[in-house]
Amino acid sequence: MKQVAFIGTGNMGAALLRAACKAVGPQEVICANRTAAKAEALAAETGCSFCPTNQEAARQANYLFLCVKPKQIQALLAELSPLLPGQVVVSVAAGVTLSDLQSWAGPDTPVLRVMPNTPCAIGMGMSALCGAESAKEGHFTDVKAILAASGRVELIEEGQMDAFSAVAGCGPAFIFPYIEALADGGVAAGLPRKQALTYAAQMTLGAAAMVLESGEHPGALKDAVCSPGGSTIEGVAQLERHGLRAAAIDAVLAAWKKNGTLVK
After folding, report:
1. In terms of CB atoms within 10 Å, which of 38, 106, 117, 162 comes out highest?
2. Cβ–Cβ under 8 Å, residues 87 and 109
3. C-beta neighbour count of 194 within 10 angstroms
4. Sheet strands (E) in 136-191
5. Which residues pair with 2 in a beta bridge?
6. Statement to judge: residues 8 and 47 lie in one domain
7. Is residue 173 located within the same domain as residue 95?
8. How many CB atoms are located within 10 Å of the residue 117 CB?
C-alpha cells in the first residue's frame, strides 16, 4: 500500500501532489486523472506512480485526495465506495460539506476536507483542514504531514471554511492587482517596469513575513515605517483617502457571501 493517492491532477491537485512527493517521498504517492496522459506526465516529472484508473489508485493507497471539481465528487465517491472501507478520504472540493462527503463515502470511511490556495504551488500556501467525527487525531496528523511542504496547514471548524476561503483562498487575487498597482506607481515615478514589479513583489513578501514572524500587530509595523512628516505617512494618508481598508474588507465580505450561495 502507498501512503497517498491523488485523484485529479489539475492545477491544485498537481500542486498538492508535488508537495506530498517532497514531504513523504514520491515512492509513497500515486496519481490518477480522467485524462491519463496528464497524470502520466506528472508522474514522470515527480517520480511518483501512475494509475490508469481511479479504482486502481484507491486500492493501492491509504489516503485518497479527491481533487476533482465539486460537481464531480459525488459520482467519483459512488464509483469508489466499494473500495473505501479502510481508506481515508480527503476532499479538496470547495463547498462540498463533510456531511455530504460522509453520506457518499459511507459511515465507516474517515472523511476530511482541506481548502488550499494557489501559493501552495510554490510551498508558501495557506490551507485549512477540518474533519467529520469519523476522522481521528492520527488522520489529521497524517494529512498535515503529507501537505507539510505546501506551506502552512491549520485545523479549523467546518463552519469557518467559507470565511477562510474568502481571506486565504480568494486573497491572492486581491493582492496581485495591488502589487501590479504599486509597480505602476513605480513606473510613473521613473522605474523600469521589470524592476518596479520585482521591488513591489519582494516588498510584499517581506512585509507579510514580518507580520508572521514578529507577532506584532500590522498597525504597529506600519507605524514603525512612518516617520513624522515623512513620505511614508503621506502615502498612507492617500491610501486612507481612497478607501484601501474599506475596499479590502468589502472584498472579503463579498467573497464570503458568495461562498454561501455556491451550489453545494
Report:
1. 117
2. yes
3. 10
4. 151-155
5. 61
6. yes
7. no
8. 24
Query: In this structure, are 151 and 200 located in the same domain?
Result: no
Using alpha carbons, list the distances in angstroms from residue 180 to 129, 171, 187, 194.
Answer: 31, 15, 10, 11
| Entry field: residues in the chain | 264
Q: Is residue 164 part of a domain?
A: no
β partners of residue 65: 6, 90
125 forms bridges with which residues in the sheet? 151
Among residues 95, 123, 158, which one ends one of the domains?
Answer: 158
25-83 confidence digits (pLDDT tens): 999 999 999 999 999 999 999 999 999 999 999 999 999 999 999 999 999 999 998 88
> Can you say whether residue 215 is alpha, beta or left, with left for phi > 0 and alpha for psi between -120 and 50 degrees?
left
Report the CATH number at residue 38.
3.40.50.720
At 263 the pLDDT is 55
pLDDT band at 191 (very low <50, low <70, confident <90, very high): very high
Write out the E strands in the chain.
Answer: 2-7, 29-32, 49-50, 61-66, 88-91, 111-115, 125-131, 151-155
Residues 123 and 241 grouped into a single domain: no
Does 264 have pLDDT greater than 70?
no
Query: How far apart, in Å, do the first and last CA atoms of the chain sit?
Result: 33
Do both 116 and 221 map to the same domain?
Answer: no
CA-nearest of 54, 12, 11 to 31 is 54
Structural domain boundaries, residue 204: 169-259
The total of structural domains in the chain comes to 2
